Amino acid sequence: MSIEIPFTKMHGLGNCYIYVDLISQSIDIPSYSDLAVQAADEHTGIGSDGLILIVPSNRADMMMRIFNKDGSEGKNCGNGLRCVAKYAYDHGLVDQKSFKIETLSGIVDAEVHLKNGQVDLVTIDMGKPILNRSSIPMVGENDEKVINEPIIYNKQNFDMTAVSMGNPHGLFFVDNIEKAPIHELGSFLADNHPTFPEGLNVGFIEKTADNDIAYRVWERGSGITQACGTGACAAVVASILTDRLPMDQTITVHLAGGDLYIKWSQDSQHVLMTGEAKTICKGIFYL
């Protein structure tokens, strides 16, 4: 007998996940990883970048658990957090516009912005970026910041700046985002490179204006995606660390799926992310 799983498919700038509410309902799911793999398949499932569960929390208003399309569990997801916040407010899981969401990398503050009574934009306080090597995590002899460190691929050097926003990001600056070696470096570094014991999200940045950057990403466990919220935050931090952008300014990050607005505050050292969250469809998945 199949298990019926009510789901909502949502996206943040094209980064789409299957969302399952385990606060309003109780479902006996044998394996979250298996569900993620089956539901994410575009031919035999629903089709998505993975699975996000909204579950009860003893520390916050709710908890987000994220599983990539290969079944591996991630610690954080910026686009996922915005969609969880929208779902929670639109479905009455919370009754305030500001609330807290627990992730495996910590608790974040969310604030929803309404349009015609429903959530249109969401601001997430993503906390302080993690910059020391061992906490990214990245193998190496020192535990300092990783800024413009050479990575060798196909006998070429690519300068990488590493930032964790609860999940690890390696950032590379390019002159033309459309010619960035996303597939080559992404597939080389993301999931099996010995320097990155927890894998790596591989991002590429082109500075397009004084307070604008373009960003593309290969996500560990998922491959090329339309957008990555934590990656957009990491891209802004990396741009500031390498003196390409100023702190305390709202930076527009142009992703394949749309724009995010990121600010790294000098006073709090926290990174604020604002962007859209959209519902695509609802239904029943038969596991």
Automatic annotation (TrEMBL):
Q: Where is it predominantly found? A: cytoplasm
Which EC number(s) does the record attach to this protein?
5.1.1.7
Which InterPro entries does the protein's record reference?
Answer: DAP_epimerase_AS, DAP_epimerase_DapF
Residues that coordinate or bind substrate? N15, N68, G78, N79, N167, N201, E219, R220, G229, T230
List the keywords (alphabetical). Amino-acid biosynthesis, Cytoplasm, Isomerase, Lysine biosynthesis
Role description: Catalyzes the stereoinversion of LL-2,6-diaminopimelate (L,L-DAP) to meso-diaminopimelate (meso-DAP), a precursor of L-lysine and an essential component of the bacterial peptidoglycan.
Q: Which HAMAP family match?
A: DAP_epimerase
Mind telling me which NCBIfam families this protein's record contains?
DapF
Q: Matching PANTHER family, A to Z?
A: DIAMINOPIMELATE EPIMERASE, DIAMINOPIMELATE EPIMERASE, CHLOROPLASTIC
Question: Could you identify this protein by its name?
Answer: Diaminopimelate epimerase
Organism this protein belongs to: Scopulibacillus cellulosilyticus
Question: Species lineage, top-down?
Answer: Bacteria, Bacillati, Bacillota, Bacilli, Bacillales
- Tell me the gene name: dapF
